[in-house]
TrEMBL record:
Designated name of the protein: Multiple inositol polyphosphate phosphatase 1
Keywords: Cell membrane, Disulfide bond, Glycoprotein, Hydrolase, Membrane, Signal
Lineage, opening ranks: Eukaryota, Metazoa, Chordata, Craniata, Vertebrata
Signal peptide residues on this chain, from the entry's feature table: 1-22
Pfam families: His_Phos_2
Root EC class: hydrolase
Organism of derivation: Danio rerio (Zebrafish)
Length: 457
């Protein structure tokens, strides 16, 4: 009896220890989740939302001082969490096929988990918004209403003083609808006919800027730093580690496959909140290398790398300031007609705009050779551009004049080279005066008209 009891206790204890060990071994958040870049969850930049998804830190979104009152807001918001694009579904399938067929030698339970993993991504998912992505926008809407309680209200909504605009892409249209659903949940406004309009010249300006399309998007040499980094010693070492973990020859693990594993971990986590066995293919230093590879791409394709990347966002820049100007004018002569604009677009919409306005500019460019030097860079898409990333500009009337504040992901930012979180609007206009009086889309984006007939002569 005693022996049985002891036996029972030890079995019980080992089960409990085993359970807590497996809990330790399988954290719910992958250690590499902070490096997912544009495939990261919004919660990674605002971790308090994990406890309460509607929590608003009032001290962060309060007016700059007690004598200030918000009169207008413009927000540019990235779509929410989405499925992989067709291109990435193919890369994931390639990686999975390789692991299934080639990684036979080592029979660990982890490898078995990889092999029995079920490929559920299909090409027709094509970057569509997922349910979590709808939630991203529903909840963001509710928080923004709470953050700016005089601008986003049921009355303003009913009176059409809030304008909704989106890119034509399905994930953006679905995001703006989810945003409206969030407001509807708050107020249940009856007989409300929710409207939005599509404007790609503002939300997908990059497609319409010829000089960008030709000079960067369709130009392989424009992204040569990204290509070079793929064959860097840093990337080699990531591939070597993956090769040894999988017991698959190094030459079969390409940089694209390493990236596919990274994406797979990020998608499983962002879409399903699952800690996937694929995450264990990479350690933290591998993730830093892959994060840098993505940042290099963003830098050269959407950021400071080429001047035209930033300049292509001129139409959106002008649109935002004309909305602020109109609100300022309305305010001077009476009632502000519009209180808020919600503009839904892409990471590719936000990053050129932030770059045009001078945010997140490092002293030295990001190149294939300075990974170590750029360890502390400010241009880090994991921090700037998770799903549902948002830039919000708020205009305030204060006793000493109009002031403006810019929030990124619901946190106030200091305007670059103004050293102030809520400068006078006049000062902001002066600071950007070159852009406000120039930054002409046609002038920046039109290619010189080559007269082919003449060159033939
Ligand atoms: C709210 O923001 C302030 C900084 O403005 C910070 O000190 C504080 O910890 C934040 N509170 C929470 C609960 O996140
Ligand atoms: C392609 O990019 C390279 C490097 O930025 C540049 O020198 C070249 O002029 C570009 N080509 C075109 C057709 O714009």
């Amino acid at each position: 009896m005693k022996a049985f009891f002891l036996n029972f206790i030890t079995t019980y204890l080992s089960i409990m220890v085993g359970l807590s060990l497996s809990k330790l071994a399988k954290p719910t958040v992958p250690s590499i989740a902070h490096y997912f870049g544009t495939k990261g969850r919004y919660e990674e930049v605002n971790p308090h939302l994990l406890d309460d998804v509607l929590f608003v830190n009032k001290s962060q979104v309060a007016p700059p001082s007690l004598d200030c009152r918000a009169i207008h807001m413009v927000s540019v918001i990235r779509h929410g969490t989405r499925y992989p694009t067709t291109k990435n579904v193919r890369k994931i399938a390639q990686l999975f096929d390789l692991v299934k067929s080639d990684s036979l030698r080592l029979a660990s339970s982890w490898l078995n988990d990889l092999k029995t993993w079920k490929m559920w991504y299909t090409e027709d998912m094509d970057g569509r918004l997922v349910e979590k992505g709808r939630d991203d926008h529903r909840h963001l809407a509710m928080r923004l209403a709470k953050s700016f309680p005089t601008l986003i209200t049921a009355d303003h909504l009913r009176a059409n003083r809030i304008e909704f605009m989106t890119s034509s892409k399905h994930r953006c249209v679905d995001s703006v609808k989810a945003f409206q659903e969030g407001l509807h949940r708050l107020w249940d406004v009856q007989d409300m006919d929710y409207q939005h309009y599509v404007d790609d010249s503002l939300m997908r300006f990059f497609d319409h800027c010829e000089k960008f399309v030709e000079g960067v998007e369709n130009n392989k040499t424009a992204l040569k730093e990204v290509q070079r980094f793929k064959s860097s010693s840093e990337m080699d070492s990531v591939r070597r580690k993956i090769s040894s973990r999988l017991q698959i020859p190094y030459d079969r693990i390409t940089a694209d496959m390493a990236e596919a594993a990274f994406f797979l971990c990020s998608y499983e986590f962002a879409i399903k909140s699952e800690y996937s066995p694929w995450c264990e293919l990479l350690d933290e230093s591998d993730a830093q290398v892959l994060e840098y590879k993505n940042d290099l791409k963003q830098y050269w394709k959407r950021g400071y790398g080429h001047d035209i990347n930033r300049k292509s966002s001129c139409p959106l820049f002008h649109d935002i300031f004309s909305r602020l100007d109109n609100a300022a004018k309305d305010h001077r002569f009476g009632e502000v007609k519009k209180t808020a604009t919600i503009q839904v677009g892409h990471g590719e919409t936000l990053l050129p705009l932030l770059s045009l306005m001078g945010f997140f500019k490092d002293e030295k460019p990001l190149t294939s050779e300075n990974f170590a030097l750029q360890r502390k860079r400010v241009f880090r898409s994991s921090k700037i551009l998770p799903y549902a990333a948002n830039v919000v500009l708020v205009l305030y009337e204060c006793s000493d004049g109009l002031r403006v504040q810019l929030f990124l992901n619901e946190k106030p930012m200091i305007f670059p080279s103004m050293n102030h979180a809520a400068p006078l609007y006049e000062r902001v206009r002066k600071h950007y005066s070159k852009l406000l009086h120039g930054c002409d889309f046609n002038k920046e984006c039109d290619l010189p008209q080559l007269n082919l007939r003449n060159t033939e002569l």
